[in-house]
Fold this sequence. Notes:
Keywords: Activator, DNA-binding, Transcription, Transcription regulation. This is HTH araC/xylS-type domain-containing protein. The protein has 276 residues and is α+β, with helices and mostly antiparallel strands. Helices cover 44% and strands 21% of the residues. The protein has a 5-stranded mixed sheet with strand order 1-3-8-5-6. It has a 5-stranded antiparallel sheet with strand order 2-9-4-7-10.
Amino acid sequence: MTDLIERYTVESLLPVDLGARVIRQRLTSAGVHWHDYYELCLVLSGTAEHVLNGEPLTIGAGSAFLLSPADLHELRVLGPEPLDCYNTVIEPALMERQLAALGPASVHGFPWRADDFGGAGPDLRRLRAECEEPRLGSSLLVEALVAGLVVELARRCDVGSGPRVRRPAGEDQLRDAVLFVDRHFREPITLADVAARAHLSANYFSERFRQFTGTPFQLYLQERRLRFARSLLAASALSVSEVCHASGFNSLSHFGRAYRRRYGAAPSAGHESMKM
């Protein structure tokens, strides 16, 4: 049911196997959409209202945001000037290598936003040129440029600003499991599915997942679906039934009960709740 809103994919936007692509765009609007990749955008000029997961804020020259596949957004240009921007498509595997290097705090910090990222323009121009005319070593250089951009934006967003701690054994599998849930929560995934990807028994994985996230697996999965549903209700005209299925729920009654427990109101009130 997520085809009821615009969806962009890695396959349609990354024709060359480099892991990233920079697109220079001059936008007059961009309707509600989501994507199965990470998106890094830097505004060069113009002003727009950026509605991110149902919450509006104004962006302009120097504004940047990095979105995960769990985010949805739209852009409403303000004034006569188009929004001139670099829009970077980043393949999940490439991005998640950078998140792994930054540590577990980076997994839970999306979306990232900053208003002072204009200095990244030269790196994005170089990344664009490398992607458009790949040469010897381009894949290495592309990953290095993406890594630098991600680190600089993470610093501006205070991602992982707490003290560094020694990473316990098995953390990589758990981090990958969380990222898998964050990218696939709209699908009918189960604890057993994700435990198998982490090469752990279901019982052991369930306990380690709770320790890693502070939340039991089923509750974490439901929370991701509810957050996405709330954003869809606020940002689109989809019906409650359409939002239910687009968010990964297969029962309208279960969705209604879970939504009321979480937000204190029926989903039908969601179209207005985040606009007040």
